[in-house]
Amino acid sequence: MEITTARAPALLHMNIQLKNLNNFAANPKPQIQLPLHRPKYKLPLKPVRIKPAKKSKQKPVTTTSDILRLMDGLKLAIPIDIYTSLIKECTESGDPFKAIELHEHIRTSGIRPSLYVINRILLMHVSSGCLEHARKVFDEMSVRDFNSWAILVAGCVQNGDHGEATKLFVKMLSDKELENAGADQMGFSVPGILMCVLRACVCTVDFELGRQVHGWLWKVGFSRNDALSSFLISFYGKLKHYEGAERVFQQVECRDTAVWTSRIVNCCNDDNFVGVANVFKEMGEEGVKKNEYTFSIVLKACRRMGAIRYGRQVHANAMKLGLASDSFVQCALVDLYGKCGALSDATRVFEFGRSKRNSACYNAMLANYMQHGLCVKAVRTLHEMRTAGFKPREAMLDRVELACCGSGDRGSDELTEH
């Protein structure tokens, strides 16, 4: 059979396929090639910069217990200077548990502390409010100095036990070891203990003991102390012995602000408002510096005698010295102007000292609004006062509520809402 030229290419193609089949059967391990795919291009990741952690401003706190536990764990004896340092830290912190723990550790350590260290322990207990522990330490002391008595007397006054404070002071005066002691042997605490005893005398109305304190002050050489002189003037004034207060004032050589202000307070308490003005004027003539407490007392006297004209002069003096914005002076001015009928001036002072208002200033302005029958303004001031975090007096709150409800003022609705 003849093969035409037309079919030749087809037969040739068939022969090539058969040869490929024979080659496939001869080589049983086929080589499979997977198709290649071009990966998608991705932008390189930006390097992450890790910010260093901010250093904490708070220093690690090591407590007294940690130090004692560490020293005990290492079986090391604690020297007295470390104990003294720990006593100082406990005194400053005022933590009663740490104070008791430290004292017990000292007691069981076998160390015999000196009088100085025992006084430090006494002060630590008083500062921490552990008056019973302080009294126990005091009673167990075989030797005491003036500082020992002073610390315990101050602790009794601080705790409100004024009767016990005066008893301790009388007992101290009979101590033979202190009988002939001078000021140089008594140390730093003489003015402090005398102020505490005088305060206790005022609270117990013990005038005779106060006079003994005054005499003892001359004996030990502290009669020229300005702080004690100021306190003596205040003591005589509070017990209505103004002649004694004036006698002390005349004996003071270098009269400072506190001495003059104590004299002004006595005049105010004695309703001697003319005396207040005269002493205030004399104080200025002497060139003595006036403080915010001085101005607040003088303005209080102006309010009580209704002397608004003189009060304006005092106000101008306070502004000249930069004390008009003080919270105490501001409160006295608001009270003065409001009680004397100058409500616009009181409001102006109240708004001017917005950043330095205190609870007394808010209550004074509330009283002014109630005095003039302005219930809505009183309610708004009351709401502003509460927003600022101050608490109104209960009597003033009842007064505002009663006035608003009784007058049918819509401010009463705001009062009940807030």
Which key terms come to mind for this protein?
single chain, 418 residues, mainly alpha, 23 helices, globular
Q: Can you describe this structure?
A:
The protein is mainly alpha-helical. The protein has a domain at 369-418. Helices cover 68% and strands 0% of the residues. It has helices at 8-26, 64-73, 80-93, 96-108, 115-127, 131-140, 146-158, 162-173, 183-186, 190-204, 207-220, 226-238, 242-251, 257-269, 273-285, 292-305, 308-320, 327-339, 343-352, 359-371, 375-387, 394-407, 411-417. Helix 13 packs antiparallel against helix 14 (257-269). The longest helix is centred in the N-terminal third of the chain and has 19 residues, at 8-26. The chain is globular, with a radius of gyration of 43 Å. 33% of the residues are buried. It comes from Salvia divinorum.
